[in-house]
């Protein structure tokens, strides 16, 4: 079996301020002041909100393909102001990368590695988005409105 490889979704330079290699502890074992925690599908991400200042990385588990609660957990954490690394871990595929970015994930550690060139091409395939999300992408309708206002 091939070893899984971390794929970064952020395009900023990797540095030690957010890249965190220590193992993440399960939420039920987390103690205040810890720096890395792992959320499973049944865990409530809101339990971490009082601890976001000390956390540097939150791993969110995707134990099977049909599991989507991790997308909501990431968005909750981003909207609460978490600026550290959110890492998707588990059964993940390249066709999910765009949705992971929109939900606020920074990195993916898939159970089975995928080709980095295919992943980059997948992320570049659709340059516009149609609604607001946890990322900073501006919806195409807003871009159209701005162009129309600028043309007046």
TrEMBL record:
Pfam families: DUF934
InterPro entries: UCP030820 (IPR008318)
Region entry Disordered, spans: 1-21
The protein's name in its UniProt record: Oxidoreductase
């Amino acid at each position: 079996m091939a070893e899984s490889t971390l794929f970064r979704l952020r395009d900023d330079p990797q540095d030690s301020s957010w890249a965190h290699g220590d193992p993440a502890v399960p939420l039920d074992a987390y103690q205040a002041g810890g720096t890395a925690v792992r959320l499973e599908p049944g865990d409530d991400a809101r339990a971490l909100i009082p601890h976001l200042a000390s956390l540097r990385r939150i791993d969110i588990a995707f134990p099977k393909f049909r599991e989507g609660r991790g997308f909501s957990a990431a968005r909750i954490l981003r909207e609460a102001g978490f600026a550290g690394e959110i890492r998707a871990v588990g059964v993940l595929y390249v066709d999910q990368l765009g949705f992971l970015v929109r939900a606020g994930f920074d990195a993916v550690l898939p159970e089975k590695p995928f080709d980095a060139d295919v992943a980059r091409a997948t992320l570049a395939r659709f340059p516009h988005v149609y609604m607001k999300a946890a990322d900073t992408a501006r919806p195409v309708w807003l871009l159209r409105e701005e162009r129309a206002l600028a043309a007046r």
